[in-house]
Amino acid sequence: MKNTYKTKAREVIVAYLKEHIEQRFTAREIFEAVSKEDTGVNRTTIYRNLDRLCETGELLRFKEPNREAWYYQYSEDHEHCDKHMHAQCSECGKVFHLEKPFMDSFEEGMLREYGIDIDPAKTIIIGKCSKCRRMKKK
Ligand SMILES: [Zn+2]
Ligand SMILES: [Zn+2]
Q1: Ligand number with the minimum distance to the CA of 135
Q2: pLDDT tens digits for 60-118?
Q3: Which residues surround ligand 2, an ion (CB under 5 A)?
């Protein structure tokens, strides 16, 4: 039974982020949401589990350009998130998994033309999604 707390923390974090799959949260927001449910999980445990979930690829972690805090978001196809790059909408925060084949040639081009070997797990392209661009025009 010694891992009960750890498992519990992990479960509540994943459950909460799955429920809000299109949103991203800071560690603090996650802690506040989760502690409302009176799970007895403390802040340190939450933070440690967030780190671990990022390592396994179940969560995505990224930094917003204009803010200091890290954001966390649940990743649906978590098995390959360390193998492809991601794009994020700067308006709504939606994350796109860049799994289309043309991204491979982009990576190859970066290596060939600039000598940069991209680390896909750490690379996020920032832009505006089609939904947010449409809203702006109205
Ligand atoms: Zn991904
Ligand atoms: Zn958007």
Answers
A1: 2
A2: 888 766 677 888 888 775 567 778 888 888 888 778 889 888 999 999 999 999 999 99
A3: 89, 91-92, 129, 132
Each residue of 22-58: pLDDT tens digit?
788 999 999 988 887 766 778 888 899 998 888 877 8
Q: How far is the CA of 53 from the centre of ligand 2 (A)?
A: 25
Domain boundaries, given as residue ranges, for the chain: 1-79, 84-138
Residue 13: how many CB atoms within 10 A of its CB?
Answer: 27
**Burial class of residue 64 in the structure, from the number of CB atoms within 10 Å of its CB (0-12 exposed, 13-18 middle, 19+ buried):** middle
Residue written as token pair 């040639």:
105
Q: Which ligand is nearest to the CA of 97?
A: 1
In angstroms, the CA 57 to CA 81 distance is 6
Closest ligand by atom to 61 CA: 1
CATH superfamily of 84-138: Ferric-uptake regulator, C-terminal dimerisarion domain (3.30.1490.190)
Fold of 1-79: Arc Repressor Mutant, subunit A (1.10.10)
The per-residue pLDDT for 4 is 53
